[in-house]
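Input.
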Amino acid sequence: MANQGRPSRSRFTVETSARRPRPGPRRGGGRTAEVWVALSVIGAAALATFLALFLTSRPFDPMNASLAPQQAVPSGPGASPSPKSSSTATPLSSQTPSNQLSPSTPGGETTEVPDDASIQAHIESALAADASLSKLDVSTLVENGKVTIVGSVRSAEVKQRVEKTIRSVKGVAVIDNQLVITEATP
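Output.
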């Protein structure tokens, strides 16, 4: 016996009813953290989407804008804005039905009030007749004799000239001049 100088070791095994946990990922506790992370990511994405949609769905108010609006106005005769009917009721004194005769003038003659489409056509021809105004990025919309002018011009003088030209058209009652004056970039 070669192992006589060494003390002998004996093993004792004790059987228990409970199992020892194995090392590695836990089944219940580890998934709870994963679920919370996943729910947090989904919640953040939903909140970001909601905020983006909310902010972009508000109507634009030029009085509260911090930057000058950049307007893209279509060019050409086929792309002119069409007159639309107003859904709000207006007083009878300011509303003039199209193609009706106005009260007789002192000379006993009756004059026909032009409708919005003919006012629009006359405005377009008046702007096209002026060589410098025909090159501008200007668009108009006529509704019950009220003309809204949108676009961009290079100076206040040109803005006034456009308004004066449109005001000279027969049937124009009110002008809403929304032209933006842009500075030339070097």
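The chain is about 30% helix and 10% strand.
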